[in-house]
Write a structure and sequence with these properties.
The chain is an alpha+beta fold and about 200 residues long. It has helices at about 5-10, 25-30, 30-55, 100-120, 125-130, 145-160, 160-180, 185-195, and strands at about 15-20, 65, 70, 75, 80, 90-95, 135, 140-145.
Length: about 200
């Protein structure tokens, strides 16, 4: 699906949709050029977030009818702007309230985290997970983490910082599987912190 910005800008001639938050008093007291620069900076930050969230969720932040856009209880129309080169364009400034901006940023951060979690478990951390040996013993599952632990120790001996990042990410993103089946993350990390870095 198209984002709201893509959809609205494609309807009619030269059009530009800009998302922004509430104008701070110190910016409002400055020149029109400074205000315009602030609005464009706001849109550069918020626009891509909104577009990604709309496409991911399959729903639009704003509704559009009769050449007007509505969101957060407010309605917005196009304004004609004459440029220095003599051309004209239509601009729509969508004002987002602080709670809307906060919600958008939180949703985007959550989406990024979930995407990262999925990717990191299938890429950088996949070798560790493949090292977990699962056997069916005495009517139940038995998990052997010796290969995983050995890979972590090997990494610690070669690249300490990256090893710490890996073990923390394994705990963060693989917790439901690894620790739920008996992996002793805390014991390993305590041992690492309590001893000197191994000789390389």
């Amino acid at each position: 699906m198209q984002s709201s910005e893509e959809m609205l800008e494609s309807v009619g001639g030269a059009r530009e949709l800009l998302y922004r938050g509430v104008l701070p008093a110190d910016i409002a007291a400055q020149s029109p050029e400074a205000i315009d620069a602030w609005i464009k900076q706001q849109h550069a930050e918020l626009g891509p977030m909104i577009a990604i969230l709309e496409k991911f969720n399959g729903s639009s932040l704003i509704s559009y009818r009769f050449d007007q856009a509505s969101t957060g209880g407010s309605t917005y129309s196009w304004s004609e702007l004459a440029k220095l080169d003599g051309t004209k364009t239509q601009v729509m400034n969508i004002l987002l309230q602080p709670e809307q901006v906060e919600s958008i940023k939180a949703a985007y951060a959550s989406l990024k985290e979930s995407v990262y979690a999925g990717l990191v478990m299938q890429t950088r951390l996949k070798g560790y997970l493949d090292g977990v040996n699962i056997q069916f013993v005495d009517g139940g599952l038995k998990f052997d983490y010796s290969a995983l632990d050995a890979m972590l120790e090997l990494k610690r001996g070669r690249q300490l910082d990256e090893a710490f990042q890996d073990i923390v990410d394994l705990h963060t993103y693989g917790k439901s599987f690894l620790e739920g089946s008996g992996w002793k993350f805390g014991e390993i990390l305590d041992a690492w912190i309590g001893c000197q870095p191994p000789v390389k």
